[in-house]
Amino acid sequence: MDAPDTSGQSAAANGDHAAAAPPPLSKSARKKQMKQQMREKRKAERKSAEKERKRQELERKRREWDEKLAGASEEERARLVESRREARKERMERRSEERGMKVARLRRAAEVGQKLVIDLEFGHLMSPNEIHSLVQQVMYCYAVNGRCASPAHLWLTGCRGEIETQLQRLPGYDKWIIEKERKSYIEALDDQKENMVYLTADAEVELQELDPAKIYIIGGLVDRNRWKGITLEKAKEQGIQSAKLPIGGYLKMSSSKVLTVNQVVEILVKFLETRDWKTAFFQVIPQRKMCEDESETRTEEAEMDSEQAEDGNEVEGASGDDSEVEGELEEGERKRLRVEKPISE
């Protein structure tokens, strides 16, 4: 008697991640969830406090500027405004030059750079808040890669659904110099499957070097502890190689060795610059945890950059100077001078 055919059941089991319901949260997972909620609350409070600090700083500088102009003659006032205008013009020209150099680096990377793929096919396993967090991490990945002297060639694959919708809402996303594919990496790079390496903390092989011919894949999944082993399982099912970053040889992690997407990308691009894993790890992973606090800080920075871009402020090349404040003040003063200027002139 022939054995029953279970191949269909096996295939369904292997490919049924989309239909799988998340396992019930354990006591430890619930505690982590509560901690995450507290972190989100503290983050919102910090952002609110930072906005208020910036508002007060703007008001202070505006008062100082008004007082300075009030005590100056008409000629001195015009000279002060012109001097500030020239300084701002120089800053904007410098930033424009920096942007041009960044574009040139990224276009060069698209031709010869190390291929790094962010796999966005896990959207169905994440909550809306987790998808939002992932999108912010992707934004930070693009920003940090663009600042590198030798950037990687970044790919977004499986870019569809809610993840794609949220990415398209990011200011300037349509101008990103990055590969955006709705197809999976297997389909988009179908002739290079033998060169693919899925980076996962569950792999047995440690990555020692970055091979320019290889394509390194990073799983775009938030809260991987709920889905432990899913990226390794995916790599095995697809018949592609897997490897993990050699963290254990350089750092003693106080908890999980699972890193955020932006941390992995930043470690890889730092390694491309330095060819030194220790330097890359210590520059990216904070010493306390070593994961959570720095990830929050970096994601907050990316969110603040996004908010600034939405407000029309300069993000690229921001150096922490008074350029934005000065820009507002000098524009106001130019209007006032035009109003006060005698008609006879």
Automatic annotation (TrEMBL):
One of its GO terms (biological process) is tRNA N1-guanine methylation. One of its GO terms (molecular function) is tRNA binding. Signal peptide: none annotated. It comes from Colocasia esculenta (Wild taro). Residues 1-10 have a biased composition (Polar residues). PROSITE patterns: SAM_MT_TRM10 (PS51675). It catalyses: guanosine(9) in tRNA + S-adenosyl-L-methionine = N(1)-methylguanosine(9) in tRNA + S-adenosyl-L-homocysteine + H(+). Residues 102-292 form the SAM-dependent MTase TRM10-type domain. InterPro entries: MT_TRM10-typ, MT_TRM10-typ_sf, tRNA_m1G_MeTrfase_euk. Keywords: Methyltransferase, S-adenosyl-L-methionine, Transferase. This is tRNA (guanine(9)-N(1))-methyltransferase. PANTHER family: TRNA (GUANINE-9-) METHYLTRANSFERASE, TRNA METHYLTRANSFERASE 10 HOMOLOG A. Residues 11-20 have a biased composition (Low complexity). Residues 37-97, 290-301 have a biased composition (Basic and acidic residues). GO terms for cellular component: nucleus. Residues 1-97, 290-345 are annotated as: Disordered. Its EC number is 2.1.1.221. Residues 302-331 have a biased composition (Acidic residues). It is an enzyme of class 2 (transferase).
